[in-house]
């Protein structure tokens, strides 16, 4: 697997330079922002990347008979190639990861994260085609992972978000007054997550998003990072709303294809629809930043489901919920259904020390995988964080946080032991970008 990833990355580098002139030149290098090469035809290629070694520690309440859990891993190890071909009104990006972790923290073997081309027929209209972060997710997921305010993304993101999807994304930008901008986005994707090279189960996922910037644009693309590194001189605000509907989903939230399948009486696929709605805001001013997010998900289960497909390909006709045959609630119990919100804020001092806090609340439906006693079943998360930026921008930083999580009745630890009251989670992560 690792050799395949190396070959993929080297192939992407070779392909990118084909778009430049025969004598590409190193235009500049900025620590944390990558190497920029330029050609005679005004085309350019930027090669960048970062690594994030991390430590996670979990400890439960003193009256819980459990061990302390330690996790040492390379949280992310990314390489990115971005190109600009103004002659053809094209931009593109390739991004690969060597860590074996997904963006929401799950174990994964996703070598390819981003692979898309953008066609810009006019200054503000762009058409993106390929694999990318979906435009219909919560605000935090659209922000670069090496610019996060805290060591990890919020549990709202891990509960509801789909890190990557393949499809077409069309967006435009309109200036309605001196400072008021709106940016609508429409998307049609496979709805099956990233790297779905096999059969596409179900239908498509349709989505829309609207971003409103009432006080003008953020400085230096500040909409896509969390900390107010540039210390905005005037208040900046982003308001957004997004909706998506996935026809025939075969996973918990649309992150992988074909892992959860159902059949009707004729043994044809019959899959539930999954819809999601979210609203968000981002505020920045003079070193202070705040993010607010709300997500809600619902499912519609077909009435004709008679059979479920097990992981090994065998089938069964039992749909037991609390000892009773209940097809609808059995299907819903394997999906991420419910609602939640996340609010976080922080202030970066002039010595580049950032003090941050977060509160996340998750409220699962009665029948939802969000009630899973090992990985979820924690309704409240309270986090305090401290970060030190050792270079200008995001070239090198060290971050630490401590999280207190409430445990709902019936919660389990990673060894399936019953735990009570609360859970402590400590995180330390370093980010080194080139």
Short description:
The chain has 434 residues and is mostly beta strands.
Counting structural domains, the number is 1
Radius of gyration: 22 Å
Structural class by helix and strand composition? mainly beta
Q: Let me know the largest β-sheet.
A: 16 strands, antiparallel, barrel
Shape: globular
What is the percent of helical residues? under 10%
Query: Which residues form runs of ≥5 with pLDDT under 50?
Result: none
- Mean pLDDT equals 90
Number of beta strands: 24
Q: Terminal Cα separation, in Å?
A: 24 Å
CATH level 4 superfamily: Porin
Indicate the CATH class. Answer: Mainly Beta
**Element-level helix/strand string:** HEEEEEEEHEEEEEEEEEEEEHEEEEE
Which strand order spans the largest sheet, edge to edge or round the barrel? 3-4-5-6-7-8-10-11-12-14-15-20-21-22-23-24
Percent of residues in β-strands: over 45%
- Second rung of CATH, namely the architecture: Beta Barrel
Structure, described:
This protein is mainly beta and 434 residues long. The chain has one domain: Porin (Beta Barrel), CATH 2.40.160. The chain contains 3 helices and 24 strands. It has helices spanning 2-18, 155-160, 327-332; strands at 25-30, 34-38, 44-60, 69-85, 90-97, 112-119, 126-132, 165-171, 174-175, 181-189, 205-213, 236-246, 261-263, 273-285, 288-300, 307-309, 315-316, 320-321, 324-325, 338-348, 353-364, 380-389, 396-406, 422-433. A 16-stranded antiparallel barrel has the order 3-4-5-6-7-8-10-11-12-14-15-20-21-22-23-24. The longest helix has 17 residues, at 2-18. The radius of gyration is 22 Å and the shape is globular. It starts with a helix and ends with a strand. The mean pLDDT is 90.
């Amino acid at each position: 697997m690792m050799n395949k990833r190396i070959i993929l990355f080297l192939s992407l580098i070779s392909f990118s330079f084909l778009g430049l002139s025969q004598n590409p030149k190193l235009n500049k290098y900025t620590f944390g922002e990558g190497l920029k090469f330029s050609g005679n035809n005004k085309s350019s290629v930027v090669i960048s990347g970062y690594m994030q070694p991390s430590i996670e520690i979990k400890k439960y309440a003193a009256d819980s008979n459990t061990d302390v859990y330690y996790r040492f891993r390379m949280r992310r190890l990314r390489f990115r190639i971005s190109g600009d071909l103004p002659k053809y009104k094209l931009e593109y990006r390739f991004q690969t990861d060597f860590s074996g972790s997904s963006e929401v923290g799950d174990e994964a073997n996703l070598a390819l994260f981003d692979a898309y081309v953008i066609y810009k027929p006019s200054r503000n209209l762009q058409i993106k085609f390929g694999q990318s972060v979906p435009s219909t997710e919560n605000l935090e997921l659209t922000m670069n992972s090496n610019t996060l305010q805290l060591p990890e993304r919020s549990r709202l993101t891990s509960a509801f978000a789909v890190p990557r999807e393949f499809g077409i994304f069309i967006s435009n930008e309109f200036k309605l007054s001196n400072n008021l901008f709106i940016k609508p986005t429409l998307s049609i994707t496979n709805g099956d997550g990233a790297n779905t090279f096999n059969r596409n189960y179900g239908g498509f996922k349709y989505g829309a998003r609207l971003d409103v910037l009432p006080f003008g644009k953020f400085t230096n693309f500040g909409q896509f990072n969390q900390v107010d590194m540039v210390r905005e001189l005037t208040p900046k605000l982003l308001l957004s709303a997004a909706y998506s509907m996935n026809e025939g989903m075969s996973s918990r939230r649309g992150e992988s294809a074909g892992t959860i399948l159902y059949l009707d009486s004729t043994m044809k696929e019959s899959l539930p629809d999954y819809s999601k709605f979210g609203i968000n805001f981002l505020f920045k001013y003079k070193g202070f930043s705040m993010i607010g997010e709300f997500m809600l998900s619902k499912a519609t289960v077909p009435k004709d489901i008679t059979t479920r497909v097990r992981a090994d390909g065998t089938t069964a006709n039992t749909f037991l919920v609390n000892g009773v045959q209940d097809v609808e609630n059995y299907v819903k119990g394997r999906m991420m259904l419910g609602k939640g919100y996340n609010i976080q804020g922080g202030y970066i001092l002039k010595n580049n020390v950032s003090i941050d806090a977060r509160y996340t609340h998750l409220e699962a439906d009665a029948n939802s995988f969000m009630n899973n006693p090992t990985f979820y079943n924690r309704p409240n998360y309270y986090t305090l964080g401290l970060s030190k930026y050792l270079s200008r921008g995001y070239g090198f930083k060290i971050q630490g946080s401590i999280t207190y999580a409430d445990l709902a009745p019936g919660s389990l630890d990673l060894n399936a032991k019953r735990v009570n009251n609360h859970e402590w989670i400590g995180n330390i992560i370093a980010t080194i970008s080139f």
